[in-house]
Every structure is written in C-alpha cells, then in structure tokens.
Amino acid sequence: MPQYDLVVIGTGPGGYVCAIKAAQLGMKVAVVEKRATHGGTCLNVGCIPSKALLHASEMFAEAAHNFETFGIKVGKPKLDWKQMLAHKEKTVEGNVSGISFLFKKNKIDAHHGTGKVLGAGKVEVKADDGSTSVLETKNIVIATGSDVMPLPGVEIDEKQIVSSTGALELDKVPNRLVVVGAGVIGLELGSVYARLGAEVTFVEFMDKILGPMDGDVSKQFQRMLKKQGMNFKLSSKVTAVTKKGKELEVTVEPAAGGEAAAETLAADVVLVAIGRKPYTDGLGLKEAGVELDERGRVKTDDHYRTSVNGIYAIGDVIAGPMLAHKAEDEGVALAEMLAGQAGHVNYEVIPGVVYTQPEVASVGKTEEELKAAGIKYKAGKFPMTANGRAKAMLQTDGFVKVLADAESDRVLGVHIVGFGAGEMIHEAAVLMEFGGASEDLGRTCHAHPTISEAVKEAALATFAKPIHI
Ligand code: FAD
Ligand code: NAI
User: Fold this and answer.
1) Staple partner for 125: which of 113, 190, 297, 298, CB 3.0–4.6 Å?
2) 448 is catalytic
3) Could you tell me the fold of the domain covering 3-148+277-338?
4) Which CATH class is domain 352-463?
C-alpha cells in the first residue's frame, strides 16, 4: 500500500487548495514545497504583497489629493516607506502562516524540499542539506507554478534591474522608474511607485496597454493613467539596459525594429514585466515521460491528466490564464475528480481584475473577440460620472460596459473600469454562470446609492434606456 493517496508538488494557490480539498474528501495527502513558506508566488511575492502596497499607496494618494476636498486637514502626507514595507511583510506572514495552520487542521503532511517525479507513484524529496527521501503515492499533482520571463540581453539583479519580486522590496522609491511591459504586473507596480512620487514610463511592445482586455477599456484606462502622470511608449521595445554608475540607460526601439529610431531613457530602476513562464525545472518530467507543450507547459487533458497515468497538473504550469483563482478552482475540481466526483471549471467565466485605481475588471468576451467570432451583439455602456455614489467619493473615472447576444440577450461579457470594479464584477460572473440575460441584470433591484447601480444601468442600456444619462 502506498503511503499516500495524493502527493502535491508546490503549495501555491493551485497546490494548497487541491491538497486541502482532497483531505476534506477523505484522502491521505502530503505536499512538497521548496520555498520556506507555503502559498507560492501568490502569497509570498505576488497577489498578496502587491495588494498590500497597492492599498497603502492608494491611501497615500487619497490623502494627498482628496482629503482637502473632503474637508480633512492633515497637511501634506509624508511617506514612511519602511513602514509601508513592514505592513506588506506582516500581511504576507499572516497569510502564509494561515496555510500552515490549514495543513495541520486537515492532517496534511507538509514536506520541505524540492520535489522530483521519479515516475508514476513516486516523488523524491530533496532537503536543503542534500538528503533525499521518497514518498509513495497513488496520485501525483504537479502544481509548480510559473517564473519570471527573462528579457534577452537584460540581466535582472533584483536591485536596479528588477522583476516583480525585487519591485516589491526596493530600498527606496526611485525617482525614475522604467517599466518594460504595460501588462498587469507593470501597471499595478508602476501605479504603486507613481503614487509615491516616481516618474514612471512604460515601454510596451503592443500598440495598447493590457493587451487581452477589451479595446475600449485599454484606451480609456490608459488616458486615466496618463492623467495620473504616467508616461507610455507603445509599439516600442527595450533592447538594452546599461549601468552607468547609479543610473541606468535604457535603449528603446520601435517594436517593428530600427536601430536608427532608437532613443535612450534614463532611469534609477527598471522593472521587467513581460510575462511569466511555466516552471518545471528539476522536476524530472522528461525522464518520467510527462509531455510538455510547445510553450513548456505541462500538457493535460480536460481532467488535468498528463501523459503519464496517475500524474496530474494544475495552475500556472498548464495552459490558461495565469491567475490564482483559476489555479484554485482547478485544484478543487481535480480533488473532486480524484474522489470520484464531477469536478468542473467553467473557463468561459473567469474574472480578471487589475488592482489599480481605478480598478479594471472583466469577465467573458471582449468586443474584439465577439467581432472576430462573427457573433451579433448589443453593447450597453454607463459612465461613472453619472453615478451618485461615485461622485460623492470623488471616484468618477470609468464606466461599465455590458455585451449581450443580439438575439437571446444572454450576457456574453462585462467590462468595468472604476472604483471597486474588482468586487462588482462578481455579480456579472454569477449571472453569466447561470446563463442570465442582460434584462435579468437590468431589472434586478440594486441598492442606492452604490457604484453597482452603474452595472444595472449599463445592462439597461442594452435593451432600453438607462435612467441617469
Ligand atoms: P505558484 O503560486 O507559482 O506556486 C508554485 C509553488 O511550487 C511555489 O511555491 C514553488 O516554490 C513551488 N515549487 C516549484 N517547483 C517545485 C519543486 N520542484 N518542488 C517543490 N516545490 C516546488 N493572480 C491573481 O489572480 N490575482 C492577483 O492579484 C495576482 N497578482 C500577482 C502579482 C504578482 C507580482 C505576480 C508575480 C503574480 C500575480 N498573480 C496574481 C498570479 C498568481 O500569483 C499565480 O497565477 C498563482 O500564484 C499561480 O498559482 P500556482 O499554484 O499555479 O503556482
Ligand atoms: P502580461 O502578459 O500581463 O503583460 C506583459 C506585457 O509585456 C504585454 O503587454 C506584452 O505585450 C509586453 N511585452 C512583452 N515583451 C515585451 C518587450 N520585449 N518589450 C516591451 N513589452 C513587452 O504579463 P505580466 O504583467 O508580466 O504578468 C504575468 C502574469 O501574472 C499575467 O499572466 C497575469 O495574469 C498574472 N498577474 C495577475 C495579476 C492580477 O490578476 N491582478 C497581477 C499581476 C500578475
């Protein structure tokens, strides 16, 4: 008899949730994690620390820009960067220790070390001192996540030239920050430093920021960020970063190429945020016969089965959006399947949120995707400037856009830019999960005064007229 029903390698949101769900369903579970703490990228160096800094810097900006209008006189806010970092650290500690507690509570054996798949049913754990042990198990889940995508020719030292990990612990706020890539990481962390006084310039390869988002959202959101003082060089790429003492010289060329049109930007810190890649280093997958796809992701079928019986994979290391909640839901679905239940993830309804100010949130199809698929749709839009609560809060940047099928009225996509968008998007997600229509949303009574009323009014705009514009 093997020691375990399930061994999970990696305790990020995919792995730890899968382990807990499997234990709740009666399985004997072990996890293997090489990092000193559990929670993976998300809790240690991703979602959680970035949100701690985003919230704190947002409060700083609120105090600087809006307090006087609200009639609050506290003087010009002063930044205590060390304390802001301490708040971030404490938030991370609280969250990662929570996972250790949940492992104990669910009687999950947590092994510290690097996991290697020796074949179906066998996982080697290599401890920090080099000693090894082997765990025997019925099933193995690979949940090893992702790592920073390097920029060829630019070496990350995590001090001056940083990835998101270094950007979460700079020793001071830089005067000039150049961000390579205006995707989710770049815009979130760029916003943190812009609010705290840095001059921030984004160099983005594509002709729009937040590439996969609805075009309307990208365009208007970029305008809002410009208004906040951030600079954008679109259709451009960084080809070199040269250290000149304490200063960095960043060479920028048109995305299409052309050294002749190259220019240089001076920076104190450069943040490289051009995407992440699946992490499978040292796992022994090739030797074990586990196939990868052309992008280095573990190949799985729709039951998360790899090419080897009894070995499964979930989260950032497989195809799909690299999001914590996608990894978590896959963890639950897989544990349910292993327990003989019907686990399922609806990939059509996975919300995406960018935690800037205003926030950007989206679920379902964009207008561009609907057009490309030849689907006839109706669009309803409502601006935050016409929402009473947003006015009272001085948060009138943004809008809600609802896209519904032209014939059936079924909601196909909802896109929100505005204060609290990341919370509001879930009413759209629930509606879409149940196949709801735009009229269902537009006729659902929404409490007044709430910013969510903008969602109702945008839905109304797809089949009737909104009341407040
Ligand atoms: P990971 O969280 O990467 O966890 C994998 C774990 O496996 C790691 O702990 C690693 O140490 C361990 N591991 C790897 N190899 C081995 C091995 N051989 N043996 C033992 N252990 C191993 N997503 C959101 O949804 N919302 C956000 O707000 C958000 N913010 C982010 C901010 C930043 C700065 C970054 C970088 C990412 C952010 N993400 C966010 C993405 C999110 O972090 C990932 O989608 C999520 O962590 C993926 O979970 P995972 O379990 O697949 O992998
Ligand atoms: P991303 O894919 O969101 O953005 C990368 C950007 O860099 C793209 O716009 C791309 O066009 C650009 N780019 C690529 N190569 C370039 C080059 N050579 N020069 C200039 N620009 C270039 O990736 P990002 O921001 O690194 O985030 C990685 C992952 O982490 C994402 O998949 C995201 O889902 C996840 N994440 C999610 C968050 C959230 O949900 N709020 C927050 C942070 C990260």
Assistant:
1) 113
2) yes
3) FAD/NAD(P)-binding domain (3.50.50)
4) alpha beta
